[in-house]
From TrEMBL:
This is Mitotic-spindle organizing protein 1. Required for gamma-tubulin complex recruitment to the microtubule organizing center (MTOC). GO terms for cellular component: gamma-tubulin ring complex; interphase microtubule organizing center; mitotic spindle pole body; spindle. Belongs to the MOZART1 family. GO terms for biological process: gamma-tubulin complex localization; microtubule nucleation by interphase microtubule organizing center; mitotic spindle assembly. Keywords: Cytoplasm, Cytoskeleton. InterPro entries: MZT1. It comes from the Eukaryota.
Amino acid sequence: MSSSDEARLKNARETVDSLFDLSQLLQTGLDKHTLSICVGMIEAGANPDTLAALIKELRQENEMLKGHAE
């Protein structure tokens, strides 16, 4: 791996770490892996507001399913 690739990888990790810290402060409940997927989707052109609404909807459906399983 070249030094520029290593620098990009280090920068990406630092960015995810910073985003994760912010995510924790905002109590989003997203882990680093999920947060990285969301960032990738946004970078690929996904609408952030739509993505956030989808995550909220999926969480609500998950809670409803958990309630029915008990």
